[in-house]
Amino acid sequence: MTDPKIELHVHIEGTIRPATLLELARANGERLPADTVAGLAALYEFTDFKHFIEVWILTTNCLRSRDDFRRVVVDYPAEAAGFGAVYLEGIFSPCERVARGVAWADIFEGYLDGAAEARERYGVEIRYTPDLYRGLDPAVAEECARVAVRYRDRGIVGLGLGGMEKGMPSQPYARAFAIARDGGLALVPHAGEVAGADSVRDILRYDPARIRHGIRAVEDPDLLAEIRDRGIVLDVCPTSNLRTGAVAELAGHPLPALRAAGIPCTVNTDDPAMFGTDLGREYELAAQLGVSAADAYAAGLAGALCDDATRARLAALAE
Questions:
Q1: Which of 213, 240, 248, 306 is the most exposed place for a label (fewest CB within 10 A)?
Q2: Is the pLDDT of residue 202 over 80?
Q3: Tell me, what's the pLDDT at 88?
Q4: Can you tell me the mean pLDDT for 161-189?
Q5: Which is the catalytic residue, given 79, 96, 193, 282?
Q6: Cα separation of 188 and 74, whole Å?
Q7: pLDDT of the residue at 39
Q8: Cβ(202)–Cβ(182) under 8 Å?
Q9: Percent of the residues in the chain that have a pLDDT greater than 70, as a whole number
Q10: pTM of this prediction?
Q11: What's the pLDDT band for 1 if we cut at 50, 70, 90?
């Protein structure tokens, strides 16, 4: 029997396999540099983190309608359930789509419709933590936070911050973070992925529930101790770190050092279609780094932003 798995860091836009992406592009009149499945698979071969962001923006522009958002949500749990996934916290980035004329309601309700369908069809619970991105107009970020709060009762549980860390401070989004927190949402920003320990320390001032990546915290022993003492869970994505160049080789991945410091770490795919991985593969890599499926599940339980009843059901699966 496959061990149950919790995944807390997966960008829904980054789960779209090439065949589906091609279909969506053609249906929505989007032009891509490649118009075959093989060509799109090659498009996912990027050179560094900056190039990855460029490809991500290009390809995710193919999502235009409420039904597009619903469909891609349903597709991923069908895959992840085969590896034992029982609970996912999906990330989506609405602000880029709104900038291209898509309505907030179509985005949020499409993703939420997909979560309900995935639960019914595959038994996978899904909650959401939409992302802002560094460089975004703060006024748009604040509007996004307000919209996210309005959907809290339907499964929006947090607000994140992604994008390029270097040269992109978090301070312009302090008001958006406050709106989200006042509305009952947790903060789950990206930090310490390709930028150093200072990036992690900067984001700690907002009292995040979890930090996505956070691997560069290993550069500062005092920072590691603070993360541990505050009980902050890190969402670690081994293949992602290798593909973006954040980590040079698996043997040098910071995951063992993070665990040795007493920090709970979840195991995640990040953008599985774009990184050529899946949830089973990430757990295999984590095991090579000394993190068992049980360890990862325990961290997932500690970091999940679900309600108490859902947490109790998830805990029972580990017994």
A1: 248
A2: yes
A3: 98
A4: 95
A5: 193
A6: 23
A7: 83
A8: no
A9: 100
A10: 0.95
A11: low
- Give residue for tokens 């540099």: 33
Is 193 one of the annotated active-site residues of the chain?
yes
Convert the chain into a string of H (helix), E (strand) and C (coil): CCCCEEEEEEEHHHHCCHHHHHHHHHHHCCCCCCCCHHHHHHHCCCCCHHHHHHHHHHHHCCCCCHHHHHHHHHHHHHHHHHHCEEEEEEECCHHHHHHCCCCHHHHHHHHHHHHHHHHHHHCCEEEECCEEECCCCHHHHHHHHHHHHHCHHHCECEEEEECCCCCCCCHHHHHHHHHHHHCCCEECCEECCCCCHHHHHHHHCCCCCEEEECHHHHHCHHHHHHHHHCCCEEEECHHHHHHCCCCCCHHHCCHHHHHHCCCCEEECCECHHHHCCCHHHHHHHHHHCCCCHHHHHHHHHHHCCCCHHHHHHHHHHCC
231: left (phi over 0), alpha (psi -120 to 50) or beta: left
Angular region, 44: left φ>0, alpha ψ -120 to 50, beta rest? alpha
Cβ atoms of 111 and 89 within 8 Å: the answer is no
Q: Chain centroid to CA 244: how far?
A: 15
CA distance 91 to 240: 15
> Is a pLDDT exceeding 60 seen at residue 76?
yes
- Average pLDDT in the chain: 94
Q: Give CATH for domain 5-303.
A: 3.20.20.140
The span from the first CA to the last CA of the chain, in angstroms, equals 14
The domain locations on the chain are 5-303
pLDDT on residue 135:
95
The pLDDT value recorded for residue 54 is 83
- β-partners of residue 5 are 85
Cβ atoms 130, 11 nearer than 8 A = no
**pLDDT above 80 (res 106):** yes
- CA distance linking residue 173 with residue 169, whole number of Å: 9
Give the mean model confidence (pLDDT) for residues 261-278.
96
C-alpha 238/C-alpha 1 separation (Å) is 24
